[in-house]
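Checklist before submission:
- one chain only
- standard amino acids only
- sequence pasted in full

Submission:
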Amino acid sequence: MQQLGSFLSATVAETADLRKRLAASEEKARISQMVRDYEERGVSTFHHDRWQMAHVFEQLIAPNIVDRSTRRYFEKLDWGEAEPEELGRAFSQLIKVAKSHKNRIFRDRLRDSDFPTLPRELSSTDKLYYSKQQLEKDKELMQMHTDFAPVLQVLFHTALDAFRTPDGVNVTAESLLEDCQRSIEDLSTMLFEYYGKVIVQPRRDLFSKASGLQVAQSSDTGFMTRVEAEAAMDTAKQAEMISMHADRSNPTAKSPFKKKDKGKGGGKGGGKGGGRVANKLPLRLLGQQQQQQQHQQQPAASPSATPAGSPRQQQSTLPRAGPNKGGKGGKGKGK
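Returned file contents:
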C-alpha cells in the first residue's frame, strides 16, 4: 500500500508537471502568434487597460503640458472611446518637464564622474581621420548623445534599484520597493520627455513646414488626429472653392493671350505672319484689320474683271480667322 501510494503520488506530480509545461507551451505559442499577427497585419489582440493608461497620463504627462488648448482637449478625452491615434498622440505631449520637477529628479539621482553621461568630443588629431560628411554625422550623433544624457543619468539609478537586494540592515524589501517605484517613475518621465522633445516635436515642425496645414486645436503641439485631419481637409477644400469662384467671377484677371492661341496653319510665306498677328489683336480690332486687308486686295475695275456677285470674287478675299487658329497661309514664296 505504501508503494502504491508513492507510485500514485509520483504519477500525480508528474501529471501536474506535464500539464504545467503544456500550459506554458500553449501560452508561449499564443504570444508568438500575437506577435506575428501584429507584424503582419498591424492589429494585436493584446491591449493595455485604457483607464490605467489614463492614470499614467494624468500622473506623468498632463502636469507638464503647457499649451492650454491641448490640456483641455485631453482633459475632456474619453479614453474608453478614443481612437488609437489620439491615445498614442497623448503620450507625445511631454515636450518639457517643469524645472522644479526636473531639479528634484536630479537631486535624487546624482551624477557620477566615474560613469560619464556626456559624449567624448573629438580631438584635433581625431578630426584629421574624418571626412567632412563624417564630421557632420558625428556632430549629429553627439547631439543625440547629449540629449539622452539626462535620461542616462536617471537610468543608472533605476538599474541599480532594480538589481539591488535587501540586506536586512540598511535596505529592507519595503524601502527597496518604494525606491524602485520612484526610480521607475522618474525614468518614465525623462523618457517621455526625450520621446516628445527629441523625436516627435522635430517631426511635427517638419510636417507643419512641409504641408502648411493649420488646424484649430493644438496644431503646434502634436500630429493631427483623425478629427483634425478632416478639419484641415475641409479648410483646404473651402480655400480651393473660394479660389475657383474668384477666378470665375473675375476672368479678366487672367491673361487673354495664351501661347496655345497662336495660329497653327501659318505657311512659310506671307500667310504665316497674317494668321498669328490677327490672333494677337483684340476682337474689336480684328474685324477692322480684316476689312482693311479686304479693301487693299480688291482688284481694280477692268473689262476683264469678274462680276461682283460671282463666286470667284468671293473666294479672292482673305480666309476667315477662327478664334484659336490663325489663317492658313500659302506655302509658295510668292504669295
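Reviewer check: Residues 2-41 form the longest helix (40 residues).
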